[in-house]
Design a protein that fits this description.
The protein has 16 helices and no strands. It is mainly alpha-helical.
Amino acid sequence: MQTDQLDVIVRVAGATLLIWAAATRRLTRHPDHRWFIPLAICLAGFLAGNSPVGELRLTGAAGRVAVIVAGFTAVFLWWWCLAVFDRTFRPRGGVLAIGSAWLVLAAMDRGVFGKALAGVGLSWLLLALGVLMLTHLAWRLFSDYCGDLLDRRRAARIGVAAFIAVQLCADVLIDFALGFDWGPQAFTLVQNGAVLAFVGLVMRLADDVDAGAHPPVRAAASPQADRLAARLATLMEVERIHLDPGLDLAGFAAAMGASEKVVRRLIHERTGHDHFRRFLNAHRVAEARRRLSSPAHRRDKLIAIAHDSGFASLASFNRAFLGVEGRPPSAFRGESSSEERKDGL
């Protein structure tokens, strides 16, 4: 089979599979689905236009749209991967700012805002943002590795991070050595195949994680299981170990008197949480909620409530509280005070 024919098959089949997958994924099943749909559209545009042979590219309005949406692929791939490994992911703060900057610059680079802006050499700036996004993703995969309570997802973090590192190094070296326009047909074919393989593997992981994210059926009761469950309740309800800001899974497992593997499964089975940090934050937010609604702590500053509830910083407190309650702690306190005044009338 000729390279031209193989190129067409890979690109057409890949775009078709991506669109089909996007159409059949239900948004209510997993948070990553809301990011997969725009990613699939962008990747379909990327595949449609990513060919060094002019005769094999889309032309006219369809080709123009494909080029534009292909420029947004990196952001949605970044956000989608983050959502796969973090079910509470929402683009905010620096992640939202960097992603938005990429979308604007990519649109400028592809002439959405006029041909004059398309020729100002934005490729190097986009490359810098791309390196930053991939580095952030790899860092998140590693930093959350120890606390991940789902075995399959935990193991996949290393493989995905390794793929990202290899892809990042290869792209940067090629861009520096050969320029942005270099792309012989064989290289482009391999690049298309690698992108499709990566997305397919992560999509399979997302489905597997979604299927296993609910707590497994508890094993038959045993003296050891009962002892560990009782110890877990004692640590959280009596000793309130979660109020220690420096607590990690290793320290928690030592306090439990069991291995980290056993503790990970126990927490997931008994509480339904899929990450140790979210398990701790649920208890810490409950403590903060109690303090924020208590007249005895009405004059306490938010930073004091954050530390007394087990959070290491005000930023992490605000982020966790917003994720659990859907509103910042200051708003929660204001509503609690208003209810108190109404009750007192």
